[in-house]
Amino acid sequence: MARGKFLIFLLIFDISTLFAQATLPLSNDFSRISNTDNWTVSSVFSNTTGYYFGNDNNPCAAKFSKTGDYIQVFFSDIPSTVSYFLAGNSFSGGKFSVLESADASSWDTLHNHTDLKSPYLQFTDSLNPVSRYVKFLYVLKVSGNVGLDDVFINKAENKPSQNMSLKYGLNSLKNGSELMIGNKSSIELTLQNINLKDTLNHVKVNFLGVDSADFSVSNLPDLIQVQNEQNFTLKFNPSVKAGTKKAKLILTSADSIQDPFIIYLVGINGLYASEPESQPDSLSFSNIKSYTFAVDFKKSPDLPSGYLVLKKTKSYVSEAPADGITYSKGDYIGQAQVAYLGSESSINITGIEANTDYYFAVFSYNDPKGFENYLQSNPLKGKVSSGITLIGNYYSGIFSDNNTLLSDLQNRIKAQAIKVKYDDYDSTIITNFASRDTVGGQKVITCVYSGFNYVYVPPFKWGYMSREHTFAHSWMPNEDLSMDYYSDLFNLFPADQEHANMLRSNYPLGEVEIIYSKYLDAKLGLDKAGNLVFEPRDQHKGDAARALFYMCLRYNGLNGLQWKLPPNNSSPYIIQDQSVLKKWHFQDLPDSWEKARNDYVFSIQKNRNPFIDSINYACKIDFKKMEYIEKPNESYCAVFQTSKIEEAVEQIRIDLYPNLDKRGIKIVVGLSKPQMLMYSIVDLFGNLVCESQFNFEQQALVLNFDESNLTQGIYFFSLKTDQGIKVKKFMLN
Q1: DSSP E strands, 367-513
Q2: Are 254 and 337 in contact (CB under 8 A)?
């Protein structure tokens, strides 16, 4: 039997309550999960949740397919270990965790799995004797599913010895865990004897560490009877020096299982933790694309608790975090946003736009929460420009004035395209592109039609928002949900389900003259010809037009069916005016967000939307007949069809920066194909400053000038190719 294939589908019941405790040892091979035993399943599991093929000859295994999926077991005896088999199917970038708890409210992590592959591998984790729950949780899905099989929970041996446990309030403390007491002068701890037979006796306490003299105990019991407990006081009397105080509390007894019982104590003398001694060093940026890049740096020598990273556009970060404040990713400090909090030194940044400058500042800090101390002086700073696009030579040999344009483009975007599952839209587009950080550790997604911002606490779940088919599902010649076109990422956008998506329904897009219904910037009503149309907000009009153009081009002729703008056989009463779409295409040209989205979809679906990459192509295609247009009549096409330079040079970005007494000029040129180039810089009076000519074979051309002889004034950068000349004006202040 081939492992890692998922062919069997069984019913998983949605259980919302816990049942009587099971006795140990306890096992489950997942041939069934019923509502009469001690296994509970999260409501995130759907009633049609499938099973994997299991480990070895076991025909079934539990399948975790969404963020938040979990299976939990409740038992009565003192456990020793839990063993289980895990496998991943295309699992990448996510996290699957195994947790334990004494009360099902406070959970400790036994094992975090971030690299699961097929076939199944067995894992064994040691359990805390006080634990009575074990949970298997899909913490974060980026891509792929997880199979769980052959779970076995062992019972601890019934040795004739004591068994020690410790609680702070209602929370059980795990042996070897950390206890934060803040700046309290004392706290009450509870010592438990959870053994079923013997008295816990000869209890003693010791403190180790540089600050051990700052801690002491009183009322420590010498012995505790079977299944009993007693409180004692932990005192904190710190020395003069302010900041963080640490020590190791060691409880010993005649307990052969939990002897010694160690807790790492953290106290704070004053208002804040100790200030870090140094900032990180050597800031750099890697994997730079239009939709993502990585921020890398060298950790501080004193290894603080972590690093706070601020992100900003338009100017360098001048803001700084305030001591004693617990920030969350997405919070704002002035105009700068918290991009990261943690101990890692390589951070992946998403939610960015193409061809945009981003500025960063990195601060060392020491926690715990509420007592943070940020090193505010001389943070590590730097700047990075996101990538232009990933076009490269994708359109090599394709020109808008060739009468084979339609077939040339269609063959190109079909050649390497792969299907991305409809159910993976949230783990791809939502997680890695469309969602943005906002305050309080939350995320936000914008409804493309109305502009409504949907704020949520991760993980994202569908319901309020939907995946809107721009080329309506009912327009499609074949409504087969398993086909590529149903889940094509270029056609799907997040939309407010109740207010915007339902308002659009399957109506054609157009310009509303008489409003029937309205939600924020989305409108439904009659156009000037009396047709019922839906009008999205201005920022999405060009995006929507290009999505429709793409769908007609990509799938025309598939299975012998004609894809075109309606009316068609599937929607004979829907009339989509292509002149409106072409008008929107030029009014709302591809912006940095749409270009970045094009690149991101290209990275996973392996094809591009050519109408985003070149504004000329749309004029040359009749999307009603799906035929080539040699000489477009539309006035807006005439304006933008002045030359083929737009197909050769995507954009020119000029950055100016001071360099002591000199002026630095950085010019980045995005190219769609290898070509011979000639560039020059002239001043306002036509005087030549510099020029050069060479054959360039890469995607992006970067030119750096350090010209001390340039005076203040206006200059022109001229780029000449075989397809024409493009000029960009810039000013030196």
Answers
A1: 373-374, 380-385, 436-438, 442-446, 453-456, 465-469, 492-496
A2: no
Pairing of strands 178-182, 261-269: parallel
411: burial class by Cβ within 10 Å (0-12, 13-18, 19+)? Answer: exposed
> Do the Cβ atoms of 120 and 35 come closer than 8 Å?
no
Closest CA to 715 of 675, 688, 678: 688
687-720 CB burial, b ≥16 within 10 A, e <16: eebeeeeeebeebbbebeeeeeebeeeebebebb
Q: Does domain 647-732 have CATH number 3.40.50.300?
A: no
Helices 592-605 and 538-555 pack at an angle, to 10 degrees, of 30
CATH 2.60.40.10 for the 281-385 domain, yes or no:
yes
660 CB contacts (<8 Å, ≥6 apart)? none
Over residues 524-567, the pLDDT tens digits come to 999 999 999 999 999 999 999 999 999 999 999 988 888 999 98
- The yes-or-no answer to whether 26-155 and 281-385 have a common fold is no
The radius of gyration of the chain's CA atoms, rounded to the nearest angstrom, is: 32
Q: Regarding the domain delimited by 164-269, which CATH topology (the fold level of the hierarchy) does it fall under?
A: Immunoglobulin-like (2.60.40)
Tokens of 614: 């070149």
- The pTM of the full predicted model, rounded to 2 decimals, is 0.70
Strand 336-342 relative to strand 332-333, pairing: antiparallel
Residues written for the chain:
733
Q: Counting Cβ atoms within 10 Å, is residue 543 exposed (0-12), middle (13-18) or buried (19+)?
A: buried
What distance in Å separates the CA atoms of residue 228 and residue 710, rounded to the nearest whole number?
Answer: 85
pLDDT by residue (tens digit) across 388-438?
888 888 888 888 888 999 999 999 999 999 999 999 999 999 999 999 999
The CA distance from 709 to 705, in Å, is 11
Average pLDDT over residues 341-346: 94
Q: Cβ distance 484 to 550 under 8 Å?
A: no
In the β-sheet with 532-535, what is the strand arrangement from edge to edge? 514-519, 522-526, 532-535
Task: Round to whole Å and give the CA distance between 385 and 288.
Answer: 8
Q: Residue 593 has what DSSP assignment?
A: H
Q: pLDDT for 114-140, tens place per residue?
A: 889 888 899 999 888 778 899 999 988
Per-domain residue ranges for the chain?
A: 26-155, 164-269, 281-385, 405-642, 647-732
Determine whether domain 26-155 maps to CATH 2.40.30.110.
no
Cα–Cα distance, 555 to 410 (Å, whole number):
8
